[in-house]
Fold each of these.
Amino acid sequence: MSSTAQSLFSTRSAGFKPSAIREILKVTETPEIISFAGGLPAPELFPVEALAAAAADVLAEDGPAALQYGPSEGYRPLREWIARHVAATTGLSVRPEEILITAGSQQGLDLVAKILLDPGDIVLTENPAYLGALQAFRAYEADVVGLSADSEGMDPAELRHFLLNCPRRPKLLYLVPNFQNPTGTSTSLRRRAELAEVAAEFSLPILEDDPYGSLRYAGAAVPALASRPGAADCLYLGTVSKILAPGLRVAWIAARNRAFYDRLLVAKQSCDLHTSSLTQRIVERYVAAPGRLGAHIASLCSVYRARRDTMLAALARTLPAGSRWTQPDGGLFLWARLPGGWDTAALLPRAIAAQVAFVPGAPFWVGTDERATLRLNFSNSTPEQIVTGVARLGQALSAR
Ligand SMILES: Cc1ncc(COP(=O)(O)O)c(C=O)c1O
């Protein structure tokens, strides 16, 4: 990089960090490597034909409108469907006027950070937390603080203690209550109630990020935090990335607080004017067929459930004694902790040499130097690949 370019960069952009996962994914792109690293859905399950037919219909029937600029809020019929879908799946009663369509939830995270965060503002997250959210908050120079989470989610007593003792008032509480990335664990109903209560007591807005809620393989759905009485300031993010296809880049923010909505809308305008008119209409056409999305999600769940079970059984046969790992009821990931002095970042090159990849846990942790954890994705490999991949991981582990 020339020194001229360096001298032109904003102070803010000097702190931008490349995503640790994207760097690993570059290495794992070769077909010989079985990758548990990315968060990719299974491509063979994308409803390609149905989406091709939806795209053909959209272009044949609404061609010029689908190719024209559109409203920044999003395509009205899709916002109407999203409002119904969110109410039916999460219990959050929301009107179409409260839905802002975004180019992926990742854009939602960026927009929320953009309107709320000044340099040095505190954002509270579960520890460990989703890397893309950490990247978005840090891009606005926020101080991210990770609070302990266990198999039931973030600890409300620790949250309360932090809020009582923090000299600066935190700006935002970021939570992934369903099948969290990276751990796969969910926040229990009791904890959701307690966390919402503490946040309301301290007037702390919640950002609830829910890309995985519909991918449930066991247990009953738990209502969204945003649906709780008193959680009107909660911003709720949903996406079609994991239930349909991430390449569509169609997602939404539900914001019942009008001031938040209006500010997000202006932030979106300066970012990309609006989400693609074409892909919004393709998604709307796809979901408009009664029962189609539900049947598709049911088939995803049955395939992913089997993959999760295969990985759990393979880990039980393979990981060293004293290892622990989560048993997620849904989503795409599980999270393991190796015993003793294991450093999973040091293990990764050996795993890649054995032709298997995972994500070392360290970058997901906020403010702690945790080296013995790793994230494993089970959605993007067949059961046969999972068995072979975990056996290769076993070889890498025994090559220490
Ligand atoms: C917790 C979480 N939030 C947001 C995203 C981004 O999703 P999208 O494809 O909708 O941008 C992901 C993607 O893996 C995620 O795991």
Note: Residues 39, 104-106, 130, 132, 176, 181, 209, 211, 239, 241, 246, 251 surround pyridoxal-5'-phosphate (CB under 6 Å).
Amino acid sequence: MAKLRIAEIFTSLQGEGRWVGIPSTFVRVSGCNLRCVWCDTPYASWNPEGPHLEIGDVLKRVKVAGAEHVVITGGEPMLFDPVEELCASLSERGHVITIETAGTIYRDWPCHLMSISPKLSGSTPSADTASGWAERHESTRMNLDALQALVRSYDYQLKFVLNPEHSSFQQDLEEIDVVIAATQPHPSHVLVMAEGTDSETLHRRQRLLVPICLERGFRLTPRMHVDLFGNTRGT
Ligand code: SF4
């Protein structure tokens, strides 16, 4: 039976996006094709960890958790073929599936909400980062063809992580314009989220994003789990 490397499985409230507040079981696959400088789950990207579990074992743990909504997150779930079997089995069992992806890869999989978070220029690690990750990240992070296909094929949200205090902010906004021009999303499906792993930073940056949202018609999404629990695993 196919196996997936799993960093963690936990149940909490969805903290971001269109389905914020919904009780959900999160299945976090380990491994990513990007290395965001501010990644808040380095144990699924920079230093991937976790056991290789059979899909049947993942399904058992989701069943025990008891939530209708299941969020397949990462890392980057779209990298791993066995995620298709996981999604198909979850769908057969009546679960509502969200896949959280950076949108660099298109897959035709059972999924009720494709949560696409394109990585903007501010996500790129510094040039002297070990293993050449700055260059690899920069050349991989934006794939307009994949983004167009995802937006065309799924119910979706486009969720952009922004730091209005970072020198890349204006460039990040210009890149959002490029993505919107390419994908033509419904305005209510375009969300921006402040980057930050503590409430004080998050709230300060959220306030700075308000005028940007009003000017451009973006929807501001909270990071409710950070507000409630800080930057802790399993929340
Ligand atoms: S795409 Fe997501 S998991 Fe991968 S490095 Fe960036 S924030 Fe981390």
Note: The beta strands are 3-13, 23-29, 52-54, 69-73, 96-101, 113-116, 156-162, 190-194, 219-220.
